[in-house]
Specification:
Layout (H helix, E strand, L loop, with lengths): L1 H12 L2 H19 L4 H19 L2 H11 L5 H25 L6 H27 L10 H4 L6 H27 L6 H32 L5 H44 L1 H11 L11 H19 L5 H13 L4 H18 L12 H6 L1 H8 L2 H15 L8 H14 L21 H5 L5
Helix pairs in contact: 1-10, 2-3, 2-10, 3-5, 3-10, 5-6, 5-8, 6-8, 8-9, 9-10, 10-12, 11-12, 11-16, 13-14, 13-17, 14-16, 14-17
């Protein structure tokens, strides 16, 4: 029941590994063409090319077509065996390039490469010689291995290609799993190697299933379903995992980079909107612009508007806001961003009527537009820091003479509560209790 299901599954989805392997080859092809002298890239290209050709060749319709075109029954068998052997050799060459480095000048590397090429080329030649000596007149599309398991010379050919593939898969699998445990790997490469290791491990299931079915025929038993149903499905799944292992590091890094660019562009929006309210214009929208170009244009626009505005910043207010944010529990980096946001908003609200105080650090401000923009998303935190900074600037908590404090208190008692002035910056923002401020000033967990 299970083997029948697997056989139908293989027949229905035999094209899936070909598509996935083709996608992996297409992603790697530009780099292979640009850096053809790199032995590692050549090995990757050869492995993916042989894998694609193999899965195209083992499709039942292609097997029948090859036999008809050549006029030789079962001619597709040594052809498929040769592609599988070449794929195994390419995998070992890839391991050699990884294990011994990218330089082809090393004697160890050259000896290992010559050994792999010589041995697996010899296996391919032996496969064709054995096929020429074997008597296989009846065409078998799916069960050739078990049907001719006891046929002289064909028996040796079947055993030879399975052993060659098993040895290559064992060596490759062992080294890959050793590399997965290395500490120096970044996330995407580690995931790619994990998929490669799983793919080569599963390819051993193909070998075990085939060898078990063939051995059963030698002993007079019938386990053909392992060869015709289980082994092909294992091979397809192994090919998909191997292809994903090659695709993931390249695609993962690319998508991760694009995501970081888009997030950076989105996080600059509060500061961009604020600068647009000052300048009155904005960055023209380009439909076909790449995300990197959009980010550069937005950063450039913000800095172009912020640079003349920086001359009007109140550096005293910025310093007091920085101290106030630190007192309210902010980290130094967040306190710096909140202080800059308070100074920028104050310069915009004051209508640029003065030239500011002190010497603004424009270089530092222009480099920190990202943290400042993120700080602008939390207006409650900005209001709390502004209130604390204004209070410090007007004498709250400062070392003021006792007579002045008493005079101010008496004046307030005689005149009643002060009227809210439109020019009083303290009255423009709601008061915030100091004990409540740190809750929203601290960075929110993502």
């Amino acid at each position: 029941m299970v083997t029948t299901f697997l056989g139908e599954l293989y027949t229905s989805f035999v094209w899936v590994p070909t598509v996935v392997l083709g996608a992996a080859l297409a992603l790697k092809l530009p780099a292979i063409v640009r850096m053809w002298r790199d032995p590692l890239l050549r090995a990757v290209g050869g492995l993916l090319l042989f894998a694609c050709a193999l899965f195209v060749s083992v499709t039942p319709s292609v097997i029948g077509w090859v036999n008809r075109v050549t006029g030789v029954p079962n001619f597709a068998a040594p052809w498929a065996y040769s592609l599988l052997t070449a794929f195994s050799g390419a995998g070992l060459l890839l391991i050699v390039a990884w294990r011994f480095g990218l330089s082809e000048r090393s004697d160890t590397t050259r000896r290992a490469r010559r050994w792999v090429i010589s041995v697996y080329s010899g296996v391919i030649v032996a496969l064709w010689v054995l096929f020429a000596l074997a008597d296989v007149p009846v065409e078998r599309v799916r069960d050739l291995d078990t049907y001719y398991a006891n046929t002289p010379f064909m028996r040796e050919e079947i055993l030879l290609y399975l052993l060659a593939h098993t040895v290559a898969a064992l060596i490759t699998m062992r080294l890959i799993w050793n590399w997965v445990r290395a500490d120096a790997l970044h996330g995407w490469l580690r995931w790619g190697l994990t998929f490669l290791g799983a793919g080569y491990t599963l390819s051993l299931v193909f070998d075990v299933a085939k060898l078990t079915a063939v051995t059963a025929r030698w002993t007079g038993h019938d386990l053909d379903a392992l060869s015709t149903d289980v082994a092909p499905c294992a091979a397809c799944l192994a090919a998909v995992l191997i292809a994903v292992g090659f695709i993931l590091p390249h695609t993962g890094q690319f998508l991760h980079g694009r995501l970081r660019v888009r997030l950076a562009h989105h996080r600059l929006r509060p500061l961009y909107v604020l600068m647009r309210s000052v300048d009155g214009t904005g960055v023209p929208f380009l439909l076909c612009a790449a995300p990197e170009l959009r980010l550069i244009r937005r950063e450039t626009y913000i800095r172009d508007v912020l640079l003349p505005l920086a001359r009007h910043l109140d550096e005293d207010l910025r310093t007091r806001a920085h101290r106030a944010a630190l007192r309210l529990g902010c980290t130094p980096r967040r306190a710096k961003a909140l202080a800059a946001a308070v100074a920028i908003l104050d310069a915009i609200d004051s209508g640029r009527r003065d030239d500011g105080t002190g010497h603004p650090d424009t270089a530092d401000l222009l480099q920190e537009i990202g943290p400042v923009s993120r700080a602008l998303r939390h207006r409650d935190a900005i209001d709390a820091v502004r209130v604390a900074a204004r209070g410090e600037g007007t004498g709250a908590g400062a070392a003021e003479p006792v007579g002045v404090v008493q005079a101010n208190s008496a004046a307030q008692a005689n005149s009643g509560p002060p009227a809210a002035s439109s020019m009083d910056p303290v009255r423009r923002t709601p008061p915030v209790h100091p004990a409540e401020a740190p809750r929203f000033l601290l960075p929110r967990r993502r």
